[in-house]
Amino acid sequence: MAPETMLQEAQDKSTTKGAQTVARPKGDGVKRDSQTPSTPSKPGPGMRSDSFVFGIPQNGLEHIEREVPVSEPPPLPQNSELTYVGKPTVRYDGPAKATGKGKYTADVHLPGMLYARMVDATIPHGRIVSIDTSAAEKLPGVRAVHVIEHVYGVSELRDPKLETPSRYPIVRYAGQPIAGIAATTQQIADDAAKLVKVQYDTMPFVVERNAARSPDAPVVFPGPADAAGSAGGGGGPKDVPQKGNVHGPQRRLKGDPEKGFADADAVVEAEYFTQVQTHSALETHGFVVDWKPEEVTVYASTQGTSSVRNEFADVFKLPKSKVRVITEYMGGGFGAKFGAGNEGVVAANLSRKANAPVRLMLDRRQEHIVSNRPDSHQKLKIGAKRDGTLTAIQLTSYGTAGVGTGAGTAGPATNLYKCDNLLTEEYDVFINAGPGAAFRAPGHPQGCFAFEQAIDELAVKLKMDPLVLRDKIDESPARRVERQVILERTNWRNRREAGADSGPIKRGMGIAQSVWYRFVNMNSSCEVRVSRDGSVELMSAVQDLGTGTKTILAQIVGEEFGIPPAQVVVRIGDTRYPIGPDSGGSITAGSITPAVRNAAYQARQQLFAAVAPALGTTADNLAMQGGRVVLKNDAGKSYTLKQVTAKLPTDEISARATRAPEYSKDRLTYGGVDYVELAVDTETGRVHIEKVFGAHDCGRPINPTGVISQINGGILQGISYALFEQRIMDPKAGYMLNANLENYKILGAREVPEIEIALVENYIAQSSTDAAGIGESAGIITLAAAIGNAFYNATGVRIRKIPMTPANVLAALGKAQPEVEA
Amino acid sequence: MNKFSFVDCKTVDEALGQLNNGATVKAGGIDLLDLMKEGIVAPPKLVNIRNVDSLRGITVSKDGLHLGPLVTLSEIAAHPDIQRTYSGLSDAAGHAATPQVRNMATVGGNIMQRPRCWYFRSTDFDCRKKGTSDVCHALTGENQYHAVINNSTCAMVHPSSTAVPLLGMNATVELTSKRGKRTVAMSDFYVPPEKSLINETVVQPGELITGIFVPAPEPGTRSAYQKYGEKESFDWPIADAGIVLVMDGNRCRKAAVVMGVAAPTPIRSAAAEAVLTGKTIDEATARAAAKAAMQGATPLSQNGYKTQLFQTAIYRTVLLAAGQMQRDPSAIG
Ligand SMILES: Cc1cc2nc3c(=O)[nH]c(=O)nc-3n(C[C@H](O)[C@H](O)[C@H](O)COP(=O)(O)OP(=O)(O)OC[C@H]3O[C@@H](n4cnc5c(N)ncnc54)[C@H](O)[C@@H]3O)c2cc1C
Ligand code: SF4
C-alpha cells in the first residue's frame, strides 16, 4: 500500500477506534520553526516542560523543549551516557532458540490434540456445485470436517448481488481453501483430505497481469471489488473506478507536472518490471486452537496477538474477554500474519466441532499461495533542472495482488525527495491467483527499484555524481549524514565510468535510498512487577516476531533498575497481559518501549516510596546511578537493588502504564542509504554481490546488535528479491509451478556478501525512549535499486526487470532473446 | 505421502529377492522421497540397499576406477586419486546439490534420479511423458529451464552431474538381476524420449546397479566439469559441461564434450569435439567448439538464454580442462 494510503488508513483507525496516532514529518525530526517554537509556551494542565537531547550526533546534538504529561519519566540522555540502553546486547531468547527450547506454534502439543489439513481448490476459477465429505468423514480417526462459507483476506464485491448466492464461496484462485479436516494423526487428516469430492462448474480465468488488463480478458470479479488491509497494512484504495480487472487508478496530483516537465533541462523516462514475491516465512501460517465454552485459547503464529483476538471475537461473536491468544515464539511473518485468517477460522471451527484442541499449520505449497508481494509494471518520468532540482515526477503503475489489492508503488516517488509537481496513478489488476498482503515495506521495494534507478539515470544525464544529486534534492538530514558515511567508508571515491571493464566480468558500485514512516500504535501497555527478592518482570501482550522485541524491553527495564537485561524476566505474547501493538509497519519498538519504560519508571518510584522510610530517607532523595540505588544527599551511601527491595513492606509491587501520545505532532520518516559493489558476468548472466554497506537511522537505537541484525536480514531479503525470487504461474492451467523451496529460489548462505552497517543515531524527542522500528527501511526497499545502479555502473546497461536471473540479465545485455513480457 | 512397507537388505541377493510387485530401490533416498512426498510415485514397498556392504567402496586400479553404486558424492569428491586422474568426475560430484545432499546421495541414485520438469513433478498436471495425456506443457508453457536440444517430444532434462563426466570418460554400468549380470556403456544407458517415454534408462524392473567402472584414461588426458545456474548452492544446473581432452603437448588429440541439461538425457556434441580434435587449445578454439555445440539447438519460447549459457559453460570448461583457466567463480555448486 502506498504510504499516503497507509497514513490515511492509520488515521482512519485513530478516528474510528481511537487507537492509533500517526505522525510523519517532511524531514527527519529537524527543528522547524512552525512546529517547534524555540520558546515554548507555559505547559498546560497536567503537563510539564522537559528538555530533550535532539538531533544527530554527527551534526552536533542540541536540546529541545517538549511539553509532556507529568506522569512521564524524565528524558533519557544520549545513548553514550546510558548503561544498557543503546549497548550491543545478546538476544534475550537466543539460547532458547538455538537449543530448540523455544516453543513455536507448530511445537505446541496439547493433550488430546487433533491434526488438521486444509482442502484446497484445484481449479483457478469456478463455482462449487457440490462438496461431498462423506468418504472423508467415514475414515477412521477423522473427528471433524468443516466446509468454509466465507474466504478471508481477499477482495469482496462492492455489490454482492452481482453473484448468485451459493452455499459455497466462488473459487477465484487455485489453492483457495475450501474445507478443513481434523483427525487423530496428520497422516489420517492428509488421507481424508484426498477423499473430499468437490464438483466444480469451471469459469474462464487469467493469471497474467498483462493479459488481465485486456478488455476481453476473463473477469476475476463480475464488478468492482475491494480488499481491506490488515493491521500490517496492505489492501488498496476503495473509492476508485474499476473496468474489467483493472481497479483504479488511485490518482494523486500535486502542482502542475506538465509545466514541470516543460521547465526541465533533462528528462528521464522508462518502464520497469518487478515480479511477485511470496512471503515464504520459515514457519508457515498456522494455529493451535483449543475451543472451550469458558474460553477459546489460540496459539498463533502471528504478528499481532491483538489482531488475532479481534478477528476471532468478530467472526465468532465472542466477547474479547473469552479469547486468549498466545505467541511465545514466532518464525517469521514479514507482514502476512495478522488476524485469524482462513486457517484460524477453520481450526477454531474444527476444535469447536470435535471438542478437542486442533493444530492446523499450512504446508509449504499453501504458504506460497496464502500471501505475496504484488508485482509491478511502472512507467516513470522525472524532469530536473541542470542543477538537479526536480521539476516533475510522473508515475503510472500496474500491479497484481491476485484476488487482493494493494499493488501501489508510489511511496518512494512521493516521499523521498522534494518535488512540487507530481502525478501518480496506481492501478491494481485482478488475476486468478492468491491474494497479496502487506510485505515488509509494502510497495516500496517495487517503487524504489524504478525510482532510485531513474534518479541515477538522471545523475548520468546531468553529469552529476549520484550522491551529489541526492544532496541537492534530499531534505532528510539523517540521509545526508548517511551519504557522508558512505562516501567516507566505502570505495565510492574510486567509482569509475560506467562499463569500464573490458573483459566478460564487469565490476561496479551503486547506491539507493529508502524512506519509511513513523507509525505509532497507542494500544501499547505494560505491567512491571518487582518482588521483595529483587526479581523484576515485565508483561505485555506484544509479540516478538523474531526481531528482538524481548531483548529491547529487557534493556529498558534493566536501565531503570540498574540490573543487566538478562536478569529481567520478559513475559510477552499473551493477551492475558496488558494490550500490546500489532507488529506491522515498523511500529513495535516505537510504540511499546515508552509504555515499558513508563511502567518500569513508575514501579521504581513506587519502590522508592515504599522503602524510603526503612532507609531513613524520603523517596525524592533516592536515585538510580551506575546500577546502584544512591542517596542524593549522601554520595557515600548506596545500595544494590536487592538490598533495597528487601525492605519492601509487601511481597510485590507493580505498576502498569500506557504509552503517552507522541510528544510533538511532527510527521517523521526514517531511511537509509545502501551501497553495493558487484560483479556481473556478462557471459553467464550471473550477478555476484561482493559487498553491501548500509547506513541507516531509526531514532534512538535501543539494541544496536538487534538493529544491525534486522538490517542484515533486510539486505539479504532485498538481494534475494533482486536476484532470485519469483512466483511462476502456468498461464494455461492457472497453477503456481514453483510452490516449493526448490524452484522458488531464495538466497542461501553462499549468496551472502560481506555486509557492513553504520547506524546513525537520530534523537527525535517523541517519546520516553525515542525508539523507532527498523524492519521496513532495513535494506529490503533499496537493494534491488542499488544493485540495478551498480549493474549500470558495471556494464553501462540499465536493467529494468527483476529478478536478475541469467535469463533476464542476458536479455538485458542483448545476448538472449527476451521472453514476451507478461 | 502414501503408506509403504520398508525392507532393509544386507546383500544383493536379498535385495533382488525383494524387488517385486512395484517395490522400489532406495539408496540415499533424496530423489525418491521427494517424488513420494509430491505424490508422483507411490511405491508399496521400499527396498533399502544402503546397508548392502558389497555395493560400497572405491577401488582405483591399473585398468580403471571401480565405484560401488552406494559411494556417496562426497566420497567421490574427497578421493585424492579421483581428484588427480578423473578430475572431471570429482568436480561433478563435489559441486552437485549441497554438502548435506552430497553426504547422502549415492552415485547409483544420482544417475538414476528422475528427470526435471515442473509439470512432471507436479500432480496438478497430466502430460505426454506420464502417459496420461498427449500434451507436453513445456513446449507451449513455462520452459525456462527445459531442454534446448532434442526437445520436440518431451523437453525434460536429466540433472545428474556425475553422468556428464561418466559419459565423457566412457564409463560402463554393471546391472544385476535374478537372471544374472550385464554391462551397459554409459552411451547406451539413457533412453531418449523419442525411443521411450516410459523408460529413462535401460535398467529393467528387478535390476540393480551393482557397479560403475571408468576405464583408466590414456596418457595426456585432462578433464573438468562445471555447472551453471541461478544460485551458488541448493540449485539445479541450467547448463553444465563435462570435458575430457587427450592432449599431446598443446595439441588436442581426442576430445569428449558432454552437456548435462541441454537435452532430455546427457549428450555428447560430435560437432564440438570435431572442432577441438587436432587443434591447439586456446580461447578461440574453445569458443568455436562451444558455438558448434549449440549450432543445432532448438530453443523454446523462454530458454533461448540457455544456448548462450551452454556456450559459456563449454568454452570455460574446455579451458579449465586444458589448464588455461582457473575454476570459474560464476560456476555454481
Ligand atoms: C536442491 C537440490 C539440488 C540438487 N542439485 C543437483 C545437482 O546439481 N546435480 C545432481 O547430480 N543432482 C542434484 N540433486 C539431486 C541429488 O543429487 C539426487 O537426488 C541424488 O543424487 C539421488 O541419489 P540417492 O542416493 O539419494 O538416490 P535415491 O533417491 O535413493 O534413488 C533415486 C532413484 O534411483 C534408484 N536407485 C538408486 N540406487 C539404485 C541402484 N543401485 N540400482 C538401481 N536403481 C537405483 C531409486 O529406485 C530411485 O528411483 C539435487 C537435489 C536437491 C534436493
Ligand atoms: S517436458 Fe516431458 S515431462 Fe515435462 S510436460 Fe513435457 S512431456 Fe511432460
Automatic annotation (TrEMBL), chain A:
**Per UniProt, which keywords does this protein have?**
Molybdenum, Oxidoreductase
**Which InterPro entries does this entry report, sorted A to Z?**
Ald_Oxase/Xan_DH_a/b (IPR000674), Ald_Oxase/Xan_DH_a/b_sf (IPR036856), Ald_Oxase/xanthine_DH-like (IPR016208), AldOxase/xan_DH_MoCoBD1 (IPR008274), AldOxase/xan_DH_MoCoBD2 (IPR046867), AldOxase/xan_DH_Mopterin-bd_sf (IPR037165)
Q: Which SMART domains match?
A: Ald_Xan_dh_C
- Start and end residues of each Aldehyde oxidase/xanthine dehydrogenase a/b hammerhead domain: 99-204
- Biased composition (Basic and acidic residues) is annotated at 25-34
- Give TM segment ranges: none
Protein name in the entry: Xanthine dehydrogenase YagR molybdenum-binding subunit
What's the domain of life for this entry? Bacteria
Q: Write out the GO MF terms.
A: iron ion binding; oxidoreductase activity
Query: Which lineage?
Result: Bacteria, Pseudomonadati, Acidobacteriota, Terriglobia, Terriglobales
What organism is recorded for this protein?
A: Acidipila rosea
Give positions of region: Disordered: 1-54, 222-258
From TrEMBL, chain B:
Q: InterPro entries, from UniProt?
A: CO_DH_flav_C, CO_DH_flav_C_dom_sf, Diverse_Substr_Oxidored, FAD-bd_PCMH, FAD-bd_PCMH-like_sf, FAD-bd_PCMH_sub1, FAD-bd_PCMH_sub2, Mopterin_DH_FAD-bd
GO molecular function per UniProt: FAD binding; oxidoreductase activity
Keyword Flavoprotein assigned to the entry: answer is: yes
Does this entry carry the keyword Transmembrane helix?
Answer: no
Q: Which Pfam families match?
A: CO_deh_flav_C, FAD_binding_5
Alphabetical UniProt keywords: FAD, Flavoprotein
Q: Where is the FAD-binding PCMH-type domain?
A: 1-219
* Name under which the protein is recorded: Xanthine dehydrogenase YagS FAD-binding subunit
